[in-house]
């Protein structure tokens, strides 16, 4: 390994073992230089254990149906091996594994088993392609948990591998608590399971107690006596699971166990999205993962497990490609690599600019442009000043509130063109929700009635019908601000125009009735859309209000 400072064209070398990192990633030249002399495998296999170790996350329990949905998403993502569950655990678990095995997925479907015939029979009954047999090897586990000698453990492991192989299964064997096991015993264990026909051996860092350099050496020592592919399974108790997994690869591992969003026992497992992107960015080692689907799968897993993704989570967190500070926004707008190490589209995300205390004119201008607003410099400075004042009071300013400030500064939030004169909505059991509105639209009275799947849907449809069918409800967000059945709610609507993609705006309202609050937000958004449309029709700055919708 070279420790020289990077040469200018470190990225251009083509000598064996060196690969040029992917386009769209902007890692350090020094990093490239360091790893230019390191031999790495072309491709790493990904075993995803979201449905097994991930489901062991405290308070997570997935239905069979949700497990199948996740398995299908993992398959589309390109995971090589899906650890679908622990079949002997319960009937429900076996049922889920069986469904996944029968779903015709491309991935190898694997069931977790202890080194026992009962567990292996349960997995066989689920028609899995492979089994992941685990058995503890560390002194603590042998003495305090299993109450077995090393010889007994070795014998159990060998018998289990032989049984699984005799039944035509692909077999991966894990030395549970392997990283706290003396190497001598691991060598003996690996000799035994290899003679029994094991296909892969996994080294679990069960309680996440390795450092990257120790992990690299540990795996390379093990590799000396192993001829089947090696895997690593790292837990995140010290926040090092991804670094340790990468170190495992440097030590000779060819497969990594990981989970979506880093779910798993206690502090979790190595996050698949971080592992895959790091392999690609730092070592140019490929996986079969379609990284563009990562954001989608992360959201799906978060929704179905009920475990939120922290906003600052690498790769898939809400803030991962979000910029607030004026200096950063300015930099990113001129060249994204100034403050982004990879392009967001690589992982299926979008860059966002957040307006807040640290924002400057560039950030605010850019955000308002998204909604078609171009302000004079003086007006822009006034908006920025108000934004900072608002943010300094500790409140978060969302896009709808920013628009309200901008329209106010521009003097366009005056007398609304669209007013609600009458509104009724009926809903109930075995009754189709129906709403009627009478709107005063620039002096003209218009009435419309519509039905919907619920009272909000019916009401917003009736308003659209009264104003114009060109109006598109692009987003609808309803959040409870306080608890209880009389809670305050906040509704935000994003509106567009099917005839003009540039017309985009937001409306927002806060109230205690979710239906009338939704209607108020819609009317506010429509009035903004009206002003925007008039400006397009008549030229900005003109006060004619004869057209719009
Ligand atoms: O962390 C661990 O050791 C495991 C085993 C089942 C491999 O999850
Ligand atoms: Zn684990």
Detailed description of the structure:
With 549 residues, the protein is α/β, with parallel strands linked by helices. The chain folds into three domains: 39-305, Aldolase class I (TIM Barrel), CATH 3.20.20.70; 322-409, Recoverin, domain 1 (Orthogonal Bundle), CATH 1.10.238; 418-538, Alpha-isopropylmalate synthase LeuA, regulatory domain (Double Stranded RNA Binding Domain). 38% of the residues lie in helices and 20% in strands. It has 17 helices and 16 strands. An eight-stranded parallel beta barrel has the order 1-2-3-4-5-6-7-8, surrounded by seven helices. Helix 8 (212-223) packs parallel to helix 9. The radius of gyration is 29 Å and the shape is elongated. The model is unreliable at 1-21 (pLDDT under 50). Zinc ion is lined by residues 53, 204, 233, 235, 265, 269.
């Amino acid at each position: 390994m070279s420790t020289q400072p990077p040469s200018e064209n470190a990225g251009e070398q083509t000598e064996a073992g060196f690969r040029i990192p992917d386009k769209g990633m902007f890692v350090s030249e020094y990093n490239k230089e360091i790893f230019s002399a390191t031999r790495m495998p072309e491709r790493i296999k990904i075993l995803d254990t979201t449905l097994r170790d991930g489901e062991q996350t405290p308070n997570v329990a997935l239905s069979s149906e949700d497990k199948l949905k996740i398995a299908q998403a993992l398959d589309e993502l390109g995971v090589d091996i899906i650890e679908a569950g622990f079949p002997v655990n319960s009937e429900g678990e076996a049922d889920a594994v069986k469904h996944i095995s029968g779903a015709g997925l491309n991935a190898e479907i694997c069931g977790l088993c202890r080194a026992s015939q009962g567990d292996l029979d349960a997995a066989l009954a689920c028609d899995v392609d492979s089994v992941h047999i685990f058995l503890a090897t560390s002194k603590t586990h042998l003495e305090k948990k299993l109450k077995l000698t090393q010889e007994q453990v070795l014998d159990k492991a060998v018998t289990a591998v032989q049984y699984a192989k005799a039944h035509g299964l692909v077999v991966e064997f894990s030395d549970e608590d392997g990283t706290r096991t003396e190497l001598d015993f691991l060598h003996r264990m690996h000799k035994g399971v290899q003679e029994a026909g094991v296909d892969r051996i996994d080294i679990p860092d069960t309680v996440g107690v390795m450092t990257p350099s120790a992990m690299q050496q540990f795996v390379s020592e093990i590799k000396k006596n192993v001829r089947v592919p090696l895997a690593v399974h790292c837990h995140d108790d010290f926040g090092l699971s991804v670094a340790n997994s990468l170190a495992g690869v440097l030590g000779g591992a060819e497969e990594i166990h990981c989970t979506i969003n880093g779910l798993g026992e206690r502090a979790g497992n190595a996050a698949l999205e971080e592992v895959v992107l790091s392999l690609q960015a730092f070592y140019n080692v490929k996986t079969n993962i379609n990284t563009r689907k990562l954001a989608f799968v992360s959201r799906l897993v978060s929704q179905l497990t009920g475990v939120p993704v922290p906003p600052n989570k690498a790769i898939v967190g809400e803030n991962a490609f979000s910029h607030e500070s004026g200096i950063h926004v300015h930099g990113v707008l001129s060249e994204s690599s100034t403050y982004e190490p990879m392009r967001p589209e690589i992982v299926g995300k979008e860059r966002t600019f957040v307006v807040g205390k640290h924002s400057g004119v560039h950030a605010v201008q850019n955000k308002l442009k998204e909604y078609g607003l171009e302000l004079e410099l003086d007006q822009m400075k006034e908006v920025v000043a108000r934004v900072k004042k608002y943010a300094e009071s500790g409140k978060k300013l969302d896009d709808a509130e920013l628009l309200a400030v901008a329209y106010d500064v521009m003097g366009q939030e005056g007398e609304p063109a669209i007013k609600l004169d009458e509104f009724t909505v009926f809903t109930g059991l075995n009754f189709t929700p129906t709403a009627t509105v009478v709107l005063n639209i620039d002096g003209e009275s218009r009435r419309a009635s519509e039905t919907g799947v619920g009272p909000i849907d019916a009401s917003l449809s009736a308003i659209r019908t009264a104003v114009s069918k060109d109006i598109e409800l692009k987003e609808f967000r309803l959040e409870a601000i306080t608890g209880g059945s009389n809670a305050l709610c906040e509704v935000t609507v994003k509106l567009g125009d099917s005839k003009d993609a540039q017309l985009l705006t937001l409306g927002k309202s806060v109230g205690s009735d979710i239906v009338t609050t939704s209607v108020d937000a819609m009317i506010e958004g429509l009035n903004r859309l009206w002003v925007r449309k008039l400006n397009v029709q008549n030229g900005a700055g003109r006060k004619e209000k004869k057209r719009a919708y």
